[in-house]
């Protein structure tokens, strides 16, 4: 009897706790603003055309080109799995509609491209002068351009492993979106794009820490910060 009463008295407590958690999530911006649409992207491919952002030119008053065509579906600072509120997503994921190795990835801005000898799916471009803060140097980082097992790279032949400081113009074809993540889980075809700060010695900082990266929103001309109620799909000025 006592146990049953205890059980019933716990019900409202659990409900209140669940409600508080929901309110807290929305207040703190915890949770993914794009999770539902991203699920729909994979479950219902027919809706993909309505979610795709396609930009041949940068947005007005923005310096960077959106480097690939697709659904900008996992945003900057998203704290949800496989990321956490303590180690959130450091860039944006653009999900292309096509087979692996067919959706082009372009340089977001003029700079000097490097591909380390061990990089299968990744290139990084050095921009000596940040177009929004000209006194500093920044980098743009592009990854997942390889087949799922990593054997076939989808980076174009112009940039073989070991490429160092090769000048590229904004819009230069870098490679194609792939499934390779280097992680045990599968995310789906996309390219990960991030803006990385320079270390004092001029090298790029560790891209996996959000403190070493910048919110790409002002560079792209639309809000891609998961903490600031983004509008999806993104459009210039959204
Ligand atoms: Zn990513």
Automatic annotation (TrEMBL):
Organism per entry: Candidatus Thermofonsia Clade 1 bacterium
Name of this chain's protein: M23 family metallopeptidase
InterPro entries: Dup_hybrid_motif
């Amino acid at each position: 009897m006592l146990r049953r009463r205890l059980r019933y008295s716990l019900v409202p407590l659990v409900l209140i706790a669940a409600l508080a958690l929901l309110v807290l999530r929305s207040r703190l911006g915890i949770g993914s603003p794009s999770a539902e649409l991203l699920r729909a992207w994979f479950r219902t491919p027919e809706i993909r055309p309505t979610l795709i952002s396609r930009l041949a030119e940068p947005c007005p008053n923005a310096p960077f080109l959106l480097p690939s065509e697709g659904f900008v579906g996992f945003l900057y600072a998203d704290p949800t799995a496989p990321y956490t509120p303590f180690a959130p997503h450091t860039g944006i994921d653009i999900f292309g509609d096509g087979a692996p190795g067919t959706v082009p990835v372009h340089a977001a801005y003029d700079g000097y491209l490097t591909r380390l000898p061990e990089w299968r799916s990744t290139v990084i471009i050095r921009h000596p002068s940040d177009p929004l803060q000209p006194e500093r140097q920044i980098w743009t980082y592009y990854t997942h351009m390889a087949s799922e097992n990593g054997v076939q790279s989808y980076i174009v032949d112009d940039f073989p492993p070991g490429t160092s400081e090769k000048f590229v113009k904004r819009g230069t074809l870098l490679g194609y979106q792939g499934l390779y993540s280097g992680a045990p889980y599968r995310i789906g075809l996309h390219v990960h794009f991030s803006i990385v700060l320079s270390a004092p010695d001029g090298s790029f900082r560790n891209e996996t820490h959000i403190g070493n990266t910048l919110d790409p929103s002002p560079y792209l001309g639309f809000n891609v910060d998961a903490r600031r109620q983004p509008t999806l799909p993104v459009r210039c000025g959204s």
